[in-house]
Amino acid sequence: MKNPKFVTGEFYHVYNRGIDHRKIFSNTNDLQRFYKSMDEFNTTLPIGSIYEASFLDPAILSKRKRKRLVKFIAYCLNPNHYHFILQQVTDGGISEFMKRLGGGYTWYFNHKNKRNGYLFQGIFKAKHINSNEYLLHLSAYVNLNDNVHKLGGATAKLNKSSRDEYVGKIEEDFCEKGIILEQFKNKHEYMEFAKSSLVDILEKKQRDRELNNLLLE
């Protein structure tokens, strides 16, 4: 599937998984490193490694963060894949951001684990979000993605999503939540919508799976 042309101001569902379905996060340190990369590499200004950036003056880092390539609307990080809802805010922003993120994290992961080669399953995949309804339902799917995969036990520790931001469990403004939450009376109403939407999405996925199985018989 060929990615769409990325238009500044538009919203996109961006996702990828580990090659051969392998884990891309071995532990919580990997998860936090990837999350930090989502922030550090999201700048129009040149950047080296995250290690090099750690020595920069805070004022320089703050300036970088004012010049974004993309805006995050929602995200989820799972043991072997991720989903983002992104708005491109700079021409070429999504492609540049994803190149930095994928390349930087692969270098870190390979160096740490003394391995070579690809970590992700080819270039990232993207779909244009062409309606508000699509945006709302996709936000539910992304924010509640751990429920989709029924993550539990040790695996649940290798999951991080923007849900905690949306429900106010953590005081963080990583995501631009307004475009979603302003359409609801409060955060509780949004989460009720998200849970209901997720049920519908999963039921549709099951029907589609059953239909495909029938067609193959």
Automatic annotation (TrEMBL):
Domain Transposase IS200-like positions: 7-145
Protein's GO biological process: DNA transposition
Any one GO molecular-function label of the UniProt entry: transposase activity
A Pfam family of this chain: Y1_Tnp
InterPro entries: Transposase_17, Transposase_17_sf
PANTHER family reported for this sequence: TRANSPOSASE IS200-LIKE DOMAIN-CONTAINING PROTEIN (PTHR34322:SF2), TRANSPOSASE, Y1_TNP DOMAIN-CONTAINING (PTHR34322)
Protein's name according to its UniProt entry: Transposase IS200-like domain-containing protein
Originating organism: Candidatus Giovannonibacteria bacterium RIFCSPLOWO2_01_FULL_44_16
